[in-house]
Amino acid sequence: MRLSRYFLPVLKETPSEAQIVSHRYMLRAGMIKQASAGIYSWLPLGFKVLKKIENIVHEEQQRAGHIPMLMPTIQSADLWRESGRYDDYGEEMLRITDRHNRDMLYGPTNEELITDIFRAHVGSYKDLPLTLYHIQWKFRDEIRPRFGVMRGREFYMKDGYNFDVSKDAALHAYNRHLVSYLRSYERMGLQAIPMRADGGPIGGDYTHEFLVLADTGESEVFYDSAVTDLTFGDRDIDYDDVAQCQAVLEEFTSRYARTDETHDEALFNAIPEDRRRTARGIEVGQIFYFGTKYSEAMGATVQTADGKSVPVHMGSHGIGVSRLLGAIIEASHDDKGIIWPESVTPFHCGIVNLKQGDAEADAACDALYQSLTALGLDPLYDDRSERAGGKFATMDLIGLPWRITVGPRGLKNGVVELTSRRTGESEEMTPEMAVEKVAKIYAPRASM
Length: 448
Ligand code: ATP
Ligand code: MG
Description:
Elements: H1 21-28, E1 32-36, E2 39-42, H2 44-63, E3 67-68, E4 74-76, H3 77-83, H4 85-88, E5 94-97, E6 103-106, H5 111-121, E7 130-139, E8 154-164, H6 167-187, E9 192-196, E10 207-213, E11 219-224, H7 242-253, E12 257-259, H8 265-269, E13 276-291, H9 293-298, E14 301-303, E15 309-311, E16 313-320, H10 321-331, E17 333-334, E18 337-338, E19 349-353, H11 359-374, E20 379-382, H12 388-398, E21 402-406, H13 408-412, E22 416-420, E23 426-429, H14 431-446
Parallel strand pairs: 3-7, 19-20, 19-21
Antiparallel strand pairs: 1-2, 4-6, 5-6, 7-8, 8-16, 9-10, 10-13, 11-12, 11-13, 13-16, 14-15, 17-18, 21-22, 22-23
Helix pairs in contact: 1-10, 2-6, 2-10, 6-7, 11-14
This protein binds adenosine-5'-triphosphate (ATP) and magnesium ion.
C-alpha cells in the first residue's frame, strides 16, 4: 500500500478522553473512531490488525478440531426465557422490540442459540464430541464503557461451545480449549496466564480466565512468579490425546494463580515469599465447563450407547478478539508508539522515502515495493512529500516492526537502511539484502 492512497487519519494531539496508552495510540494511529460510548468504527489500520488476530484464533481453533460457523447478532427473547436468563441477565442486555412487538435482543453471548441448534439436529452420542464456535459482535450495555476497545459495549468475541456425552468427555474439551488458547495468545506475542476464576451463579471449579499482566488491567491478580516462566512454545500436541491435554492443563494451572474473586490468602501465603506476586491483569479469555445447565433447561438430550437419554454436557469458551488489540498494545509499546509483534502487524514493513521526487530514490523505493509484494509481503510505502522527521514519527506511532529507509546519500553507496522498531537498531545493506532479510523474518509465518 502506498500511504498517499491509503486512509490513515493520524492525530497529532493526544486525545484527552483516553486514559490508557493503548486507547491513546489506537486513536492517534487512526485505528478506531468512537461512534458512541463504547462503540467504535474500525478504520482501515485497526481493521487489519483485528482481522489478523481473528485469523490466528480461527487457525488455532480449527487446529484443535473445533468447527467454525456464524450465528446472528440479534436473537429472539423466547430462547432466553426458556433458559431463565431473559430475566436474570439484567441491564447489560440490550433489549429491542421489532415492528410486530416481538421481544428481541442483541446477543451478549450465545449459549441459548447454540443449544437450540444442537437440540434440533443432534440426538445421538455417535455425533459427539462436537465443538462449534463463531467469531461475532456482541453487545453488553456496560455501565462504564472505557479504555477504548478494552471495555466496549459492542465488542468482537470468539465464543465456542462443546457438546459431550459425559462429564469426563466435556473436561477433555475444556483441556483442549486451554491448550488452544495458550497457543493462540503466544502466537500474538502475549503471555496470558490461566488463573482460577469464579464460576459465578453457576458455580463449579471448572473455569479459568486468561490474564495478560499490565498495570492498566482491571483485574487484581495474585500468583506464584513461577507461572511466568512457563511457555507453550512449538510443542506438537495431539488434541485427541486426553492424557497429553490433561498434562498441559496440570502444568499450567497447578501453581497458584487467581483473580481477586477466588483469591485465598492462606494458600497464597504458603508460596515462598520471594515468589508471591500481586499485580493487575487484563482478561483476554475464559473457559468454562457448566455441565447440563442449559441442556436440561432447554431439553437438549442425546442417546447414550446403552440407549439411555441424557442431557448433553456443555462448556463455553470465549476470547476477547477486539480487547486483544488493546492488550497487545499495553504489552508492547514505547513512548513513540506501538510495537506490533510480527504475527499481527498491519503491514509487514514500512518503506520510508527520504527524498520524494528524487528520481533515484523514487525508483529504488518502487523497486523495493515491487520485490516485497512479489514475495507475498504487504509493505506500507510512505510516498508522501513530507519531511523525514514526520515520516519516521508516523512509522514509529503505527508500530510496524521493520522499516526500510531509502535516501539519495545511501543510494550513492548502493545501500538502504533496515531498522527494527523494537530495538531501534539500524543496519545498512543493499536493497536486495533488505528484501531478503524481511522475507526471511516472515517466512515461518507464511507457511502457517
Ligand atoms: P469482564 O469480567 O471483563 O466483564 P466477562 O468475564 O464478563 O468479562 P466473558 O463473558 O468471559 O466476559 O467474555 C469472554 C471474553 O470477552 C472476556 O474474557 C473478554 O476478553 C471479552 N470481553 C468481555 N466483555 C468485554 C467488553 N465489554 N469489551 C471488550 N471485551 C470484552
Ligand atoms: Mg470472563
